[in-house]
Amino acid sequence: MATKPKIAFFDFTSCEGCQLTVVDLLQTHLGLLDLVEIVQFREAMSEKGEDYQIAFIEGSCTRKSDEARLQKIRAQAAVVVALGACAHLGGVNALKNYWPIEKAQRYVYGEHGQDAYESYPARPISAVIPVDAVIPGCPIDRHEFLRIVQLLLQGRAPHLPDYPLCVECKFKENACLNYHGIPCLGPITRAGCDAICPSYGDGCEGCRGWAPEANFAYMREILRGHGLSDADIDARFTMFNHYQFQQMGEPAPVTTPLGPDRTAPLPTSTFAAPKED
Amino acid sequence: MSLYILSKERLPQFVKALQGKFRVVGPVVTETGFAFDDITDPAQLQMDYTTTVLPPKKYFLPQREVLFSYRNEKENGGPQRLEMRPVYQDVQPTVIFGVHTCDMNGVMLYDKVFSEGFRDEHYMERREQIYIIGIECLHPCDEASFCKDMGTLTAPPIYDLHMTDAGDHYFVDTGTEKGERLLLDNAYVKMAEKEDIQRLGQVLSAKWPRFRMRLKMSRDQTPSLLTLGYQARLWQELGDRCLACGSCTNVCPTCFCFDVHDENDITMQGGERVRVWDSCQLREFALVAGGHNFRESKASRVRHRLMRKGKYIKQVHGLLGCTGCGRCERACLVNITIPGTLNALHEEMQLESGI
Predict the structure, then answer these.
(1) Which residues lie below 8 Å from residue B220, measured CB to CB, with a gap of 6+?
(2) pLDDT of the residue at A257
(3) ipTM, 2 dp
(4) A6-153: what CATH class?
(5) Interchain proximity B283–A178, CB inside 8 Å
(6) Domain map of chain A by residue range?
(7) Could you give the CA distance from residue A36 to residue A9 in angstroms, rounded to a whole number?
(8) Does A29 touch chain B (CB under 8 A)?
(9) SS3 B7
(10) What are phi and psi of B301, to 5 degrees?
(11) A182 and chain B: CB distance < 8 Å anywhere?
């Protein structure tokens, strides 16, 4: 066998839970190391090789200074893979896009946070650099990670399921949560996680992004049937997919939690904004 | 065939006697209803149940089924060759209890689909080891049932044994010789006598008024209705509503379409070819190389499903592709139903009832 392809992991704004999932995968699938050589992986090793062919990027782009680093990775890697919901969708980080960035900075970092910490509206990495493959989810599904890596190594298209989660729920013969009082976004969310949340009784929150034919109008009707207000429904639609709704254009389908004017006073942080006096 | 009497008290013994020799499955209670599952304790078996999310088709055509395994074998210095070994998954002597008549009609169609023309050896290997024990439906499962419309309220001739609840005992009809042997070898039964048979007649004739008709036309009319209504406005309306989630086909006792793909193992030198349930309601189903999709719109897919159920399958296999079990209706979050669709089509085409 020729030399093993070199892979590297990078993180931007994220919890690094997807990389932890990869570490976890290596405990049961050590054979992965026979297929690839990991040259950079902050979660698992201290060496930092810059000679890689496949880059896995976790996290969203939330700072101007992230852009240069992303460009540098793109210039080096033959294949760039977005790892997890933050890199793929912008994810929960994009919830801050509801607010003017200065307000979000003040809320999170305190009165002088704006000077101390750089920030701008969160975006998926595909908004900054071309991305060749995506491994969705919050966190990623380890088996899907392995499958996508294998497809890439074979030079095949890294294909994702393009149907809603309901397919996997039916395979497992789960009772439909939407029929049992638990709002579930499964009918509009891309499958591939083996319906893990609904299988344990939690409604899907859409962390894998929308299925290509997501029927928002009728999903909204289903959620109204649960007694949810439109604001509640918007909040569910945008938990992981705020950036996607921003991109879907006019009129913005989103009501902000602070009301449409976006000028209501911010809630007080319990831990991040120390009292000034 | 012969008719026997099995007292209800002796059913657990029958199940227990089978357990050492067979995989025994049947309806059990779940958190939200019923499901077919392995019976580990005879007390779990619920012969009196309403419906299940999935029909027993999962024992005939599993959601995911390995067809063969492959491995790259490289001899020293020689050429690479791919070694393939057939796999027959879930082939074991199995007894399925409590199959409703609608689901037996589904199995009857499966048997035709997988044996006529191209004989599917994976299906047939498994099928030959399955015993079907039906249960006569004396009440409709719920409002979604329309078995009476579809003519599936009578047991089709595919059962090995068929049970009818008569209060303190079951009538057990034997459909096959192997079914009769299964019963006599494992259960304590007595032959039905003349008055028993009269009693069975009463039980069976009393059930029919409990089932309502939902179709505004005869089922015999559906092929021509669908032909006439191919260009109906209705399809667009249904397509707009459809979530394209595939739930209707996955829960359907007659849907049999599958996708085939390879799953490599961690070494990438071997793996398995598997088939998994597929659905004509999903976008990729009719997508072909080059990017053309033969059924791009959801409207065309909803129509295709109805055409299959009400016309195409009948043309190929002689049976309608719908058993009236109502599962697709229960699974559909946007209330697309087969009776509702056929009735709306009937109305749009302004046809006579034909009943």
Answers:
(1) B354
(2) 44
(3) 0.95
(4) alpha beta
(5) no
(6) 6-153, 166-247
(7) 13
(8) yes
(9) strand
(10) -75, -40
(11) no
